[in-house]
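Hi R.,

Here are the chain sequences for the assembly we discussed:
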Amino acid sequence: MRLSQSFYKTLKEIPKDARIPSHQLMFRSGMIQQLSSGIYNYLPLALRSIRKIEKIIREELDSRGCEEVLMPAVQPASLWQESGRWDLYGDLLLRFKDRKGNDYCMGPTHEEVITDMVRRNLKSWKQLPWNLYQIQGKFRDEFRPRFGLMRGREFIMKDAYSFDVDVESAKKSYWKMHEAYTAIFSRCGVRFRAVDAATGEIGGDMSQEFQVLASSGEDLILSCDSCNYAANIEKAVTTSTGGTPDETAFKALETVDTPGQKTIEEVSSFLGAEASGFLKSLVYESDSKPVLVLIAGDRDVNESKLQAALGSGVLRMASNTLVEKTMGTSPGYVGPVGVSSEVFVVADLSVTRGINWISGANEKDKHIRNVNLRRDFNPDKVIDIAFAAAGDSCPKCSGGKLEEHRGIEVGQVFYLGNKYSKMMDCSFLDEEGESQPAEMGCYGIGVGRTMAAAIEQNHDENGIIWPVPIAPWEVVVLPLQLNDEAVVEAAETIYESFRMAGIDTMIDDRNERAGFKFKDADLIGYPVQVVLGGRSVAAGNAEVKFRESGEKSEMPLDDVVVVVRDWILERRQGGAE
RNA sequence: CGGGCUGUAGCGCAGGGGGAGCGCGCCUCGUUCGGGACGAGGAGGCCGUCAGUUCAAAUCUGACCAGCCCGACCA
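And here is the predicted structure of the full complex:
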């Protein structure tokens, strides 16, 4: 392609709405432009990269026996009513009516449609397993779109769904997709980790996210410094830290006045005690029933763990009114001692680690010292409901400590079970002639987000540094003096040779000054720049610059194509560390 | 959905009751030509929309719309 004819425009200044590097660079390099909040045009540069990511996905999935389909972006409400999600999905679902007044939505995901599609065709166990995927635009009316393609409302997603005869083979399908994802992201040239993930409303306990490591990531992940354990903080397990507390060291309960001191911070400084010695007592409302939650003062409640532990549908912090009604005091003075047996009490494992806690006294302006498990309160459940944190012991190996990283979730694999197949009657006859619901899995990859994450991870102050496998163009040829015939001829010859060699090549044939072209080339991030300047060409040479290392080398014009081609071919298959 | 901010040329911004401006970008000419050149000339805006106040509104008031930030939420 000739840059002089290309539909693109670079900007020197950073648009004010772009906050993170990938967004700024995609904007500045002319890859994307915003049409509306969270909705973008993909210009040629961006689309080329996206197509490459899609090609990698297709190759890895097709070679593992998956088949591509394409489902509609617009979906009838009836299917969503059947699965029960028409009411559950909330405002994230963009709904509208057609001319006849029937309800529709823009598909935010395709479990319903695929389940419907499969059930029309599935008769016998002999047909399975199936694994169907598509690459589709999805729409989710995000509360807060941000960071460009990182969290848009309309976005390109690869979603796949597996259908198996039983749990065992469904898990095989799951791990096969896990393997495919590992191959895909390696080939895209990003540094990533597969981490245990929370399963949200769908339930089940088998799900992993593929997280690209980047400081701007929205997700917090924890990984062990000595084994392969890694999990999203939403999911990361904490373990009990102590043995049996020494009951002989229990001291007598003592009520203290703490006028106006409500938060752990306030009370701890008022009493001169560490936050870790406090028993934080929170009242939640789980499916309209109050639950008292106890946790060490230096820990935070992980609501997704709590929700899973309680098996609740809707979980939220109780209103002040409900707290008063349940505990007889306002938030700030709530504690576990003397709680009505009507109230369900859940304690985090951290509560077992210490003795002589300080907690609220269930009386305004008063706290109690020396509160002890079993002697003074008996939780109905003691279970891991805390957020894990950096420095915690690894739940999987002995001696390992957890480290914290930020990540961008680019993919998730999910074992679904038979929730949808049961709800929507997607079943087959097994070997005994019995009707069985299919065991399902679903698997997503954010295609645009993967591209953004790659930029987030691979850039410097001058611009993007594309990994070769997903670079829009692999090489740019830069003739520096268009009025120098030898330069132009050398550039055109090399450009043609690259094209013949199957290298994706751009030639910057614009009549611009050298510095201008260099800046643009660095910004757009071509992995290789072949620079043809008057002096070098006169000496029979070209200069080759590698974007990532910044390394430049002068070489004979005749060698350029072979050297650069070999360098590119070595890297096309990706394989980040 | 709560709290906050912003809408003036393609981008970044200044102005703040009576002439619509600056930088970058764009067009023409000349000089320049290896890290976003310089000079001269030029094109480009219903100052987000609608209403109100006023002799007069980009400017004041109100409503609405849009975008952004913080929070809550999230496959």
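Chain A has a mean pLDDT of 91. The first strand of chain A starts at residue 32 and ends at 36.

Let me know if anything looks off.

Best,
T.
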